[in-house]
Amino acid sequence: MKQHRVTFLPSRRSIEVDEGTSVLEASQRADVFVNNLCGAEGVCGECRVQILKGDFQSSDRLSAFFSQEELDKGYVLACQTKIRGDLEVEIPPESRLEQEQIMIGERRDSAEIQAGTAPQQIPEAPFYAFKPLVRKVYLELPRPTLEDNITDIERVSRELRRKIGWYAFEISLPCLQHLSETLRDTNWKVTATLVKDNGRYRIQRIEPLDTSNKNYGLAVDVGTTTVVAQLVDLRTGKVLGVEGSHNLQAQYGEDVISRMVYACGKGGLNPLHDAVIKNINNLIKSLASTYKTSPLEINAIVAAGNTTMSHFLLGLTPCNIRLEPYVPTADIYPQILAGEIGIEINPRGILETIPSVASYVGGDIVAGIVASGIADHPEIRGLIDIGTNGEIAIGNNEWLVCCSASAGPSFEGGGTRCGMRATRGAIEKVEIVDDRVKYQTIGNAKPLGICGSGLIDCIYELVRNKIIGSDGKFDRSRKDPRLTYEDDVPQYVIAEARETETVEPIVFTEADIGNLIKSKGSIFAAIKALVGYIGLSLDQLETFYVAGGFGNYLNVSKAVAIGLLPDIPKEKIRFIGNSSLTGARLALTSEEALEKCINVSRSMTNIELSNYQPYMDEYIAALFLPHTDRRLFPSVTY
Amino acid sequence: MKQHRVTFLPSRRSIEVDEGTSVLEASQRADVFVNNLCGAEGVCGECRVQILKGDFQSSDRLSAFFSQEELDKGYVLACQTKIRGDLEVEIPPESRLEQEQIMIGERRDSAEIQAGTAPQQIPEAPFYAFKPLVRKVYLELPRPTLEDNITDIERVSRELRRKIGWYAFEISLPCLQHLSETLRDTNWKVTATLVKDNGRYRIQRIEPLDTSNKNYGLAVDVGTTTVVAQLVDLRTGKVLGVEGSHNLQAQYGEDVISRMVYACGKGGLNPLHDAVIKNINNLIKSLASTYKTSPLEINAIVAAGNTTMSHFLLGLTPCNIRLEPYVPTADIYPQILAGEIGIEINPRGILETIPSVASYVGGDIVAGIVASGIADHPEIRGLIDIGTNGEIAIGNNEWLVCCSASAGPSFEGGGTRCGMRATRGAIEKVEIVDDRVKYQTIGNAKPLGICGSGLIDCIYELVRNKIIGSDGKFDRSRKDPRLTYEDDVPQYVIAEARETETVEPIVFTEADIGNLIKSKGSIFAAIKALVGYIGLSLDQLETFYVAGGFGNYLNVSKAVAIGLLPDIPKEKIRFIGNSSLTGARLALTSEEALEKCINVSRSMTNIELSNYQPYMDEYIAALFLPHTDRRLFPSVTY
Q1: C-beta of residue B158 within 8 angstroms of C-beta of residue B101
Q2: Rounded to the nearest 5°, which phi and psi values hold at A19?
Q3: What does the pLDDT look like over A303-323, one tens digit per residue?
Q4: What ipTM goes with this model?
Q5: Where are the beta strands (DSSP E) in B316-379?
Q6: Across the A/B interface, how many CB contacts are shorter than 8 Å?
Q7: Which residue of A has its CA nearest to B270?
Q8: Is the domain A134-208 a CATH 3.10.20.880 member?
Q9: The CATH number of domain A3-96 is 3.10.20.30
């Protein structure tokens, strides 16, 4: 078959592909990210690209997505365009996801730190004794004599016991196979690699001489949107560096549900599994190169992710997670050799996956609970992670309950006319004074759309200015040049056409508002129902932690004012950043923390909201701004 | 390089090899067995073959091994002969080892059963509860509902607990990977494979529908000379069949020491490891085909062998076993997947290796102790396995001691002029009345040499007839046509030239007698020293078990009369056949028996005889027939 070279701009990455390949497929194979929400069905219009040069064949449906001017400039949908010759393809900003915009760990970019919205640290973060999952112990052994001729491995074990305590070590076969020569060639000086697995120690490897100064681990947060990894020196627990990348699974669907649909349909599980493994391997290569180590010196990985991501990671079929009665294959995962699933670290290096609780309460939440110390203190605290789902956990050192509520894609920029993810060009802050709109975009770029925190600001500003009512409907009697109508549906112009990158106005419609009210109502109802399930009231929560990327960019007061978060004293609401990653790192560096994760996953009670009538009642009550029962929001003054 | 075809007779097997390959190597690659004691050094003269046709180049040293007549007939040493053209090579009987002559388990050939020398069964064999190492449990699971939506694997575990008891099952990753589909495709009817490993249960595999009627195991005795395997139905514990083959390692050296020398020199460990794996795979194929099952339905193997054989099996370097201070790599071996070392059974099938005690007291002895029940009863009993080494264990349910004494190769047919192994044509029984010698050969063939039991008969008959004295020296004053001299060294003709296959007389020399006295002295001294070490006398042993192939062919009275076995009432001496295999089978079919093996290996005290002065004293005292202290042998009347 004829081959053509496709070059993508601005990165100038190129690849040879067969004639007839779609531009989207070519971009995926070239590792060039192009937005794509619908799984290449040609319906979401997210994969806009501009063909600068070359022969192609595109579908007739383009007119639904592009103006004539754009069509003339060569704009097409990447998924609907087949390659017929060598091409040059520009990925416009709105279709790109740029590396530097991924929130990794507690880091934020300087603009936000200057804006005073940097996340607070976790003040009550528990202390876990430093005892990494994989330890290296240097041993100088006494030579055997006729009086002391125990076996080679027993000699190693005896010295290990002297150094670290009396344990019955399990042994892996490869560590025995050349032990005899290794001990004698090195004059009885070796380094044992010790792995904790399911409550036991295993001698995983015995190397010549002292290599105990080379022992690295990786904590990984496998998020639906991003995959973030921290390289940790397991001698000291010090974090050497952190890197993140967009989850390459996005090419098969934007959210977990669409990826499950892909994996359980014609696509199969492998592409999803392979994508996340590639993510992790790329992060490993990059971190190892930046911090001048070798992937072979990485001996342990702890990964945390939601239940679906953990299934994709381990190659477990996730199909019944999304189908009633929502049954995952497993919630506690075996420790494996990382190489078994294609992760390229030391061949004897291991992978632990933080256990889940239920289909929609995953290891990321378990890790967050351990990182925040909720399960270590008698005070009752809550944790929320808002994304497509809002996962909520409440409890203390004696009990834990959790639930998950579907929030829809609104907070991640989906389901609204001009919504977008929190990347370059997204409006993240909005203020409305009279008919003037002030906004701030990520990277101070020309605006492309509105991300979650910007949308919350919009609603808040509209209701505060009485442009919309508590029911989310526009005041049609209002005279406001920004209040316009399209097919008699009112919408509010946040950025005018001349200000934007795409020269289209950025608007916020009544339908958008309705979707966001449903989303926030769902989250608040879940919080309220869960608190009620335990027989508490909201003011009995000592602290309410907000985890995850979205939380990190949130304005608390506004989130409370629209009725998303409960109206408790502001100092009780704390952002803890990527607590999934923090928890994974704790489990990597402390046996105690990993055991705590397992105990949390085993002991936490999951409330299935789809079954729970009080949740439905709370949901209906929450479909107002801030709420039908204003007594729940005493601090809200509009 | 030029290729030549070599055809071996009588089997007519042939192989293409490069010009210059030795005939021995070619035979090995063609799987044609040719005796070879020295590891292809050209010094033992065992690998005699006859070149019938074709071009070859042989060494000048042949005259030391062959008569001119033989040289004229084309006799050469296979290891010293290079192939220069297509060849036809006859393997003469003395260089062959024939399949049907391997003792497997308790079976003996009909001639011996008629002769009344069939082994006794083990009357006190302990009862171990039937609970095989790998179990298959058929499960019909309730479907999940919203009220009962535990994970798939937990649903399997819960049902397993209901069926077999409350355990925290470990899970292997492959058993999770398609679990979700398997459960749903089969209408929730599956079979779980459960493995016991180091005190825990692991769910190793979950298969569609009911496969619990297909669960086989293999017990293997990895002997230095022979490898014997029993196919066991793990549903019932029933032995379906047993097969044996010569240990293919013999091509690299006859005994363990020469094989260690080979493995630790230029040859390396791999050929030895590969050879025993090939043995086991061949037995598996053959047993599976005979008993109409598939190797894929074999889920567990338990192997017992001496410490060196266990090291070769698992690919552990054995080199320090033979060097002071005699340190093996390990004496307790990890459970592994059989496939990890190339054994071809179910890919998730496991291999357990019975633990050893010390360099020269291996898993075969541990298995023998468990099979004989020594460690289960309060009575003090002994066990001896006589080969190149004599391993001796004494004890009861509270304590166990053991030792190993080097016996030299005499009992296996080495180190004597006309000695040979117990194969077709070997004189296995001798009686001397006046100057008439009556003998019996294995398979009633023309005699080729004398095997161990025949040599013991010879000594006994010579001393009983006063042809030799208690010191093993011939009475030179005796007039006896069978007493001849070679270079003034006396020898006794057991079979005259005209009677034998090789038309050479079979003789028994004064040097042979000296070697045998040393061998039997060494064994008896070890028994005596070990009994003395515990502070007992020989008559306090309630039973004395004789294990292994050699034991099975022994005449007890004669073995006692020459001072090899202690002079205790004959009914106390019991042959238990291949107790290594029996013990391996018990460990395969009973968790309790495997635990007993581990406890025996951990608790048994090994006495290092090379350090132990009383042993040296006993040895000197034992270099007489039957002994310098005749009070120890009151029943001996000559």
Answers
A1: no
A2: -50, 135
A3: 999 999 999 999 999 999 999
A4: 0.82
A5: 336-337, 350-353
A6: 138
A7: A177
A8: yes
A9: yes
